[in-house]
Amino acid sequence: MFDHMVWDKITISCDGWTNRNGRPQMNMLHISRHGELAHRRVDGSNETKSAVWIAEHISKDIEERGPPNVLQFVADNASANILAGKLVRERYPHIIFGGCVAHGLDLLMEDIGKLPWVKETCGGSSVYLGIPTTPKRPGLESLCASRPDAAVRISSPSS
């Protein structure tokens, strides 16, 4: 399906998480101007999820696509990812590392929610985030359904 895509000027995105059995996992996503590809899932069950481990897997994807074809990689702002970014940049100085903006905003909103006046105003209510699904993006429901710890509820657009 993706064989016809031109894989130049791509972003590699990685997202680490823990499965239901407590085993570390990492999803590798390749994004180009032509589309996105969920490239692979890395099972870290027998590994220590360290900056070196993360950097090795990012480097593997960079080599698969060819270093000149990769512009940047994006990961959340965990300290291991930031250090992995430095390690990858040492090997590939032309590649930019960017922390995930959505993760940064999530952390910001969590901090804002801890402010006394916000707690008082909201009165312990929970946050609801509706993500509209479309025929072109049906995977969001299955993605969130596969992660029981996800704090996102999917809703259809209201009519």
TrEMBL record:
Membrane-spanning ranges: none
Domain DUF659: 8-121
InterPro entries the record matches: DUF659, RNaseH-like_sf
PANTHER family: BED-TYPE DOMAIN-CONTAINING PROTEIN, OSJNBA0013A04.12 PROTEIN
Protein name: DUF659 domain-containing protein
Organism (species): Riccia sorocarpa
